[in-house]
């Protein structure tokens, strides 16, 4: 099912019907305590005619600096960027923006929506790290070596950090694994998982700790042997990593479907798991065990048990059509389309979909090298006061931004942002009559 829209020529309407049939509705959805229950389907009326897909563009030529590692320091400490920025608005209408550095240490900035919007430099850098992601556990079976914040979900007074956790044999000179800085022909011995950490938001400072002891994570692909063997790929990781943001799902008429979704990336083909992006769904993102992966016909695959060797691989659903990770997905209400953001070797691109399964041909948003723009995400600051606490909608009302990392030179990184807009639809202004 890789890149359904392009490679199998299945109609968007037919796929929408298939997804709705597999999903059901939240009121009738079964408990997700078992894969069998989650496979239950119910019939659905055909969706109404779809609107034109949204067209994104950069709003102007202005490039703003949100953070510069060399000028916005914590004393003598530089805060570098090694992942996507994520944002949420807490119960006190305070915005938190998080990122992890190359050592898997998590950091945050805080401020008001108006301050973030008018001048990103007014955001306050918290110089106490929010997550000690470098656990340095060198047993690969523990899936607990380093964890970078990749997605944030907020509910009530708790923030949930979904992380990319990996064990990298090159870091430890493990026997049978590639030794960094050499040409030895050995596998990288790279194993990834999606981990969940939590923090109270009753204070402005976040302090993330594990939601469960490692390796009890959100998603682990257990069909591996350690430290390396003949089938281990020479590059890329085995397992699931680099989750996108978490977003609410919508039915064909645009109403909430009661589920949450995220994309998770498998960077190498291994043991029947194709390389590419898989789609995960949950009734409750606060519970790591509720996630189920798309298997080609239903959200039926639980992937959180590290000790099960019976898990089937998830079916690749690839918005990028080039097997690269998806960093950001937002919902555009006027067109009833999702927009996915990613980058390839030459540009930041986007694709659109009415149902998260069938995706359009990727379009160019920003031509750049990875040094000029990497980890691209969309954050629209308009909706937080109206229920869009996790910023999963694109309003195109003047406060929509493309955030990304720019590498100035070795040891010097910058978080940069550009305003973006939807060029073929008017602004979708949030408010009490148009809540998030």
Task: Describe, in plain words, how this protein is organized in 3D.
The structure is a single chain. The protein is mainly beta. It has a single domain, classed as Tachylectin-2, Chain A (5 Propeller). 6% of the residues lie in helices and 35% in strands. The chain contains 4 helices and 24 strands. It has helices at residues 4-7, 12-23, 35-38, 113-118, and strands at 56-58, 64-68, 86-89, 95-100, 105-111, 124-132, 146-155, 158-168, 190-200, 209-210, 219-220, 238-239, 247-250, 256-266, 276-282, 292-294, 299-301, 328-332, 337-343, 347-353, 363-367, 374-380, 400-409, 412-422. Strands 7, 8, 9, 10, 11 and 12 form a 6-stranded mixed sheet that branches. Strands 1, 2, 22, 23 and 24 form a 5-stranded antiparallel sheet that branches. A 5-stranded antiparallel sheet has the order 13-14-15-16-17. The longest helix has 12 residues, at 12-23. It is globular.
Which key phrases capture this entry?
436 residues; mainly beta; Tachylectin-2, Chain A; 6-stranded mixed β-sheet; 5-stranded antiparallel β-sheet; 4 helices; 24 strands; disordered N terminus
